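Rotation project, supervised by the postdoc (A.L.). Task for the rotation student: set up a whole-complex structure prediction and record inputs and outputs verbatim in this book. Inputs entered:
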Amino acid sequence: MNEHALITIDDLRFRYETSQAWIFNNLTAMISASEITAILGPNGVGKTTLLHILIGLLPFQSGLVQLANHPLDSYSRREMSRLIGLVPQLERIPFPFSVHEYVSMGRAPYIGMLGTPKSEDQRRVDQVLEILDLQNLRARSVDELSGGESQLVRIARAMVQEPRVLLLDEPTAHLDLGNKHRILEVLQSLVDDRTSVIFTTHDPDAAFAIAGQALLIHETSALAFGPVENVLTSKNLSHAYRLPVEVRRVDGRFIVMRKEENG
Amino acid sequence: MKHLDRRGYLFILLGVTLLAVFLASLFVGRYPRPYWMPIRLLGEDALARRLVLSLRLPRLCLSLLLGVTLAATGAVMQMIFRNPLVEPGFLGVSQGATFGAALSILWIGSAWSMHTLAIFFAMAGLFASYILAQRMRFGGWVLRLVLAGIVVSALFSAGTGILKTMADPLTQLPEITFWLLGGLWSATWEKTLHVLPFVIPGLTLVFLLRWRLNLLSLDDETAWSLGAAPARERSLLLFGGVAATASLTSVAGIVGWVGLIIPHLSRRLFGADSRYNLPGAMLLGGIFTILCDDIARSLMAGEIPLGILTSLLGAATFIALMITIKRKPGL
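Outputs recorded:
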């Protein structure tokens, strides 16, 4: 087994109980540690489902998924929550918690079921709010935040969890250019702090911007995985998205362009 | 010494108020004359002493437990159903208890059987809702439970309707109606002791898990990623709260609005974090219900059903809250 393997997925088969169609059929992939990994694929291919499988929320029909060289089901709920965190794409928070109260919930893996946050938990929360420059939002209600602020606050909640792996579902969707850049910067800084970051995106540009490796899902299995420039090639992307595209290198950066039919 | 914040002072204020209201209520009533009994009478009048110790005190204890339990369970349900409009009885509990009480009034008639049947059918309502929700093949956990609760309540309510048409309109029907309106006129020490095995564990569980409740109000995947087992933990809290509510409903009948309005009020005062607003709701629920019951038993020569007063005052408070304070989303 590869020592640097953070997550290995072998022959994963999964379908929802209510449906006959396989979401994943013999999906095999390997994600190595301490790098940013982008999971790409067309809408509805199961990117979010894959994240839910990785946190152990969805039991799968067959195959083996290992996190840090141990099968997912060998971890207790508490162990799992200290290892892997999740920032969902959308989150409905039904009550107007203050930003500080909400971010404190990220300390749950270190607080007993009957416990409440202690002063060291509060300190950690304040530290993270400071790192993300969110102290001025501390007392603000979570339902009064802008899209960019809200995404940062949710990332803060996952950061105080101190997981080894942080999963983010479409972290840059619906954000303007400035906020998108800000989020990508934060993700980069997480990796510098030895957290492995895995995010899904439908935007190859976001992947090129920060990811070192990529996993491209097509239909029910992995079309390719590995270093980002080997995975997100003109051929692979055209095939996955059913649209002729071309990946070009401009001033040392990759950009994805639609290929003109007669061009 | 730690500096007390606004919440700390509020807790002290509410705690002292509850204690004062409880003690003062021992002397509120219609003996020897309406509204107030001089405290010195306790030493002079043997009847006054008996009245206070074996009638008013158990009744006060029950109204305290009722208020605390309804408010706490209401807060728990609003959190785990992620909906500020649910109340403790909606999972078939209130309608189940009513059906059981009506059954007993019609065919057995003893106070004991009424208590037993009411609690039996209240729990049956909860279990039926729960099992039905598990069997449903669509929707999320919350939606399925809400739907199941509505359906089971409707079944019991139809059953109660049938029993009502069969009841003797001169003796049994008024009794059923009065039970439906809720009240503590039949409170005794025996009944108080009888509800304790349900209320103490239920409230303890809910109180201890008060911070965890915050987590359980989040989306399933978020709660799960933070180490919770949302379905299991929500069920545990649900059963704890509902068992306590069911036992009190079997004694007090349907007392509405406490479980709905008090958690809202508490959220206004303490914010959305259940660590603070759940204990806050418990204190407020106790104060509110004791005051309502004071009015119920002493305002007029005849007893006013408690459920009517809690609805009246609860709804009035709600209206006042709605138009005086800026509404915050989710509250």
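Student's summary: The first helix of chain B runs from residue 6 to 25.
Supervisor addendum: Confidence is low (pLDDT under 50) at residues 327-331 of chain B.
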